[in-house]
Amino acid sequence: MKKSISFFGAIFSTLFFGTLNFLCANNISVSNVTLTGQNTSAGTNNAANFTQVQFNITWENSHRVAFGPTNWDAAWVFVKYRVAGGNWLHASLANTGQVAPSGSTIDIGLLTPGSTYNATTNPGMGAFIYRNTSGSGTFTANSAQLRWAYGANSVADNAVVEVQVFAIEMVFVPGGAFSAGDGSNGFTRTTISTANATTAPASNSGGYPTGQTAPTAASWPNGFNGFYCMKYEISQQQYVDFLNTLTASQSVNRFSNSTLVRLAISVANGVYSTTNPFLACNFLSMADLAAYLDWSGLRPMTELEFEKACRGTLPAVAGELAWGTTSSTPATGLTNPGLTNEIASNAGANCMLGSQTGITGPGRVGMFAASNTTRVQAGATFYGIMEMSGNLWERTVSIGVAQGRNFTGLHGNGAISSAGDADVTNWPDATGTGTGLKGGAFNETSLNCSVSSRSQAATLYSRTSTTSGRGVRSVP
What we know:
Elements: H1 3-17, E1 29-39, E2 50-65, E3 71-83, E4 89-90, E5 104-110, E6 124-131, E7 135-148, E8 161-173, E9 178-180, E10 190-192, E11 205-206, E12 227-230, H2 236-243, H3 248-251, E13 265-268, E14 271-274, H4 286-296, H5 303-311, E15 334-335, E16 343-344, H6 375-378, E17 394-397, H7 402-405, E18 435-438, H8 446-449, E19 472-474
Parallel strand pairs: 10-11
Antiparallel strand pairs: 1-2, 2-3, 2-7, 3-4, 3-6, 3-8, 5-6, 8-12, 9-10, 12-19, 13-14, 15-16, 17-18
């Protein structure tokens, strides 16, 4: 592999992750991307040949706690490559040979977690990088290495390649029983006590909520098993980075040319950019979200996983918001609007919901969290996930719709169709059938933003000013 072109790939990545230094609008940064340690010992152009993708990564407000809500945040890191200026493709990672810097752990995420690794049929789609001891604050891992099994991607040993490294902040939601429904405006209050999603509720405890129809497959992700959830809604910069790896025929179907309600993505000479990179990305249809998740090796979240991610192991409280109380202090104005330090102008604000004076649109992702804020002050869930109540509606797979109940929890394979659509078996279709909305938006009432509200649980919306989403990934 010609390092000069690989080095150009590193510069290309640095333009997105290093110079800007705040991709994802929450200050996650990947820099100094290089290829090193190419191994061709298996033979010329052999499928077993590999090279190491090396990079530095850092992000703010990282945490790992060993008590209470025992969990941590992590970066989901994946690699895209192209050969001789061709189309961008997803790099298959080996299941061994990663190099974790001191203080960090690297876990490979297979296409089918829990199944046996296979370089071609079940490769590593990416890796979770996280701190390996308790702590909080800015976390940095320099000279991390992922092993790219480029031979399994049919890339020749002497190919001219470019690489990009992408990172998405995630939060680990541990496995275990939890309460679904608060008995008021959502599910009948039920304890999800088994991973088998077809197990009927008995005495308000089972694999799905009382009064609902059972999912088709036992593997329907009902929230009992552990999973990683994106810490923030997809930002405009994240979506721009996605668009810029697609072909023209793919990206045109995934692009909303609206410039309303703080959406500021535009295209010139085939290159997408945004002047609001730190804001949550609105005007996302289910087809847009699904394509992004398929491309990144993630999957859609179910509405039961949404409640688990918000409530954790605590008992349900009627009408509670994502931070565990029924009260809220909405932002009424913005300081430093559109910038990396955009915050609410009124003291004590912890959310974007309801009638907001002077704000029309979503806010910066993670804007209410700081190094010294409590869960309520940050508007965070039990596990530290942000903006699950308010800001923008989350698109989730619905248990209340037949097509949603067919979902089996498969993950994206890093590739989408030539038309720009996700193509994973039993995912909701491009119209969004089988999905709904959870968590409310910047213009919604507290009731619609509450954890258990199902007012829009089976509502089909295309691109609107109030819709976005985030993805999850199963843990074996």
